[in-house]
Design a protein that fits this description.
Order of helices and strands: EHEEHEEEHHEEEEHEHHHHHHH
Largest sheet: 11 strands, antiparallel
Number of strands: 11
Helix content: 40-55%
Strand content: 15-25%
Mean pLDDT: 86
Shape: globular
Length: 411
């Protein structure tokens, strides 16, 4: 924490812990005033599907208290980087989205012309998640997010509600030296769970040394430990997860002595995980990278079948090559138009004998063509053919290690 603030995790019930905290403060020579009625704070942590903010050392949180909502961007050590106040509609709009995900992809819908956006950010509108960084109101926060997130949409990765009760610690002169906030958090997404209570000691200016002694006296209490990780880690841990978990990006462990069929099947199963993890985001058109990653996994699958398919038993490669050729062809039109549209601003910036406005009809044509192509793509990914392909492929690959051993992987 910055500005001398320190955070602690409390074991057990928050109410019982507060009595111990008060007793410890008074034993250390500090007074203690009980907090007023608890305040409810709703929290949504946001990141891209592949955790680009987290990997850049950033944490983005939307905090809503008494109907007022703001986006808060902090660094790896908790230092405040940027804050953006949101219009009142933000609290309602964001709460309606992101409550459940299928296959790891966040929910949401997109306009017909392309991936999810939040509408005209400069007009005071609030982002509705998932949203590209361009959907965040103009300002320093948006600039940071655009650099870190790029073309990926920001989606809810955790959601919680906290009951906050703030106390004041007093010195011998009855001067407030610090506020002591107890946060009892209940996580609602990605799973319902109660998180361990957290305590934050925030010193007032000029009383950092005394507040430090108070924090030291609290730190030695039984059941109180210094919190080395931010609240996002606490929320995800309570729900059985951790930051940076990227569905479909698991590493495949191979050894030289493995049977070649088992090794090839393991690689192909990993690629299948990537395909299925990116299907919901592709169908819902969250951002263009879902389709991009799906296509890479399909292309690698086709290459593996071509180069190493003979290692698979029962003519599996020959049976599935036509199906993955169909899948590759299904995804091509939308991705081609994505590339054209993503490169459109750079192309218009290079115009010498015309203005960007003169190419607006061409861009509209590309957007309409992409919308039509995406409808066909979504129809194909929802089809019985695609469902049979992924389901039977997984079953056949899972059975490969039980078949004949074949050559070792090294050979």
């Amino acid at each position: 924490m910055t500005n001398g603030s320190r955070e602690f995790a409390l074991d057990g019930d928050a109410g019982a812990s507060q009595h111990s905290l008060q007793a410890a403060a008074e034993a250390g020579g500090f007074g203690w005033t009980a907090g007023a009625t608890a305040t409810t704070m709703r929290r949504v942590w946001l990141d891209t599907f592949d955790w680009r903010l987290y990997r850049a050392g950033l944490t983005l949180e939307q905090v809503t208290v008494r109907g007022r909502s703001e986006l808060v961007l902090t660094g790896r050590d908790g230092e405040l980087i940027a804050v953006q106040r949101l219009p009142p509609a933000a609290a309602n709009g964001s709460a309606a989205n992101g409550r459940s995900r299928t296959g790891g992809a966040p929910p949401g819908s997109a306009p017909a012309g392309g991936p999810a956006t939040a509408g005209p950010a400069a007009g005071g509108s609030a982002p509705h998640w998932p949203s590209l960084a361009a959907g965040v109101p103009l300002g320093p926060l948006r600039e940071h997010l655009e650099r870190a997130a790029g073309v990926r949409a920001l989606c809810p990765v955790a959601r919680a509600s906290s009951r906050l009760r703030e106390h004041r610690a007093l010195n011998a002169d009855a001067k407030t030296i610090a506020t002591v906030a107890v946060d009892q958090m209940t996580v609602s997404y990605p799973a319902r769970a109660a998180a361990p209570p957290r305590l934050t000691v925030r010193p007032l200016r000029g009383y950092q040394a005394q507040a430090g002694r108070l924090a030291d006296s609290l730190a030695v209490l039984p059941g109180v430990t210094e919190a080395s990780l931010p609240a996002l880690h606490t929320a995800l841990a309570a729900a059985g997860g951790q930051p940076g978990e990227y569905p479909g990006k698991g590493l495949v462990s191979l050894t030289a002595r493995m049977a070649a069929p088992a090794a090839v099947a393991a690689v192909l199963l990993g690629l299948l995980d990537t395909i299925t993890a990116n299907v919901p985001g592709t169908v819902r058109d969250i951002d263009t990278e879902f389709l991009h990653d799906l296509r890479i996994a399909v292309r690698r699958t086709r290459t593996a079948l071509k180069l190493a398919g003979r290692a698979l038993p029962g003519g599996l490669a020959a049976r599935y090559q036509p199906e993955f050729r169909w899948l590759g062809g299904l995804t091509t039109p939308t991705r081609d138009l994505d590339v054209y549209l993503l490169g459109f601003p750079a192309m218009t910036d290079g115009l010498l004998s015309a203005s960007a406005a003169e190419l607006a009809p061409f861009r509209d044509y590309l957007a309409a063509s992409r919308a039509a192509a995406h409808r066909e793509l979504a129809r194909g990914l929802r089809s019985a053919r695609f469902g049979r392909l992924t389901r039977q492929w997984q079953q056949d690959l899972a059975a490969v290690p039980r078949a004949r051993r074949g050559q070792p992987t090294a050979a």
